[in-house]
Amino acid sequence: MRPIPVDEWKSETRSRRSWGVAMLSLTAQQIEASTGIPFVKDLEPGLGMFWFATAATATRAWLFAESIDGPSDVRGKTSVSTREIIGGENDLAGAIEELLEEMNLRTSDLAWIHPDLKLTPHALWRQDDHGHRYLVETFPSRADARFALREFESHHHKQFYWIEAAR
Fold first, then answer.
1. Range list of H helices, the chain
2. What are the residues facing 23 on neighbouring strands?
3. pLDDT digits 0-9 by tens, 7-42
4. Helix and strand numbers, DSSP H then E, in the chain
5. What separation in angstroms does the CA of 102 have from each of 2, 63, 90, 132, 139?
6. What is the per-residue pLDDT for 46?
7. How do the domains of the chain map onto residue ranges?
8. pLDDT for the residue 32
9. Rounded distance, CA 97 to CA 107, Å?
10. pLDDT of the residue at 11
11. Is the pTM of this model over 0.70?
12. Which of 27, 62, 140, 161 is at 20 to 30 A from 54, Cα to Cα?
């Protein structure tokens, strides 16, 4: 994930639709500290002061916004909107997966996800030294399964781990 200028988001959004897809249980400062994406303070007419940041992954642009003086139920949380950079199917659930993986987050870091978006459960599997395969756990998303996979692989066991969409 790399920062992009806010003006680039604004100009492109005029020609392409953007979607509010999620709210993270993280503040702008926490996101900035973990990703290096800089947030700027700005006044949004009629809505108040916000911390804003814009970033891009390989296929999508992202807008992060944390309300500074909004209702108490959204303070300390950062809303996330997205739009496509390149063509193709507009898979917003896949976009959430991409966001979580790029930011090394889990679904537990989501305070809200758009109700029309359904994440695909994924299973983490292990193969031992004798070729036996075992289901380790089924997770609510690919990002959660990858997070666990990285944790298991960090122990440098001989076993082989992989992820598959759950059936």
1. 6-15, 28-35, 92-102, 142-153
2. 79, 112
3. 777 765 555 677 889 999 999 999 999 999 999 998
4. 4, 10
5. 10, 14, 18, 32, 18
6. 83
7. 2-113, 122-165
8. 96
9. 9
10. 67
11. yes
12. 140
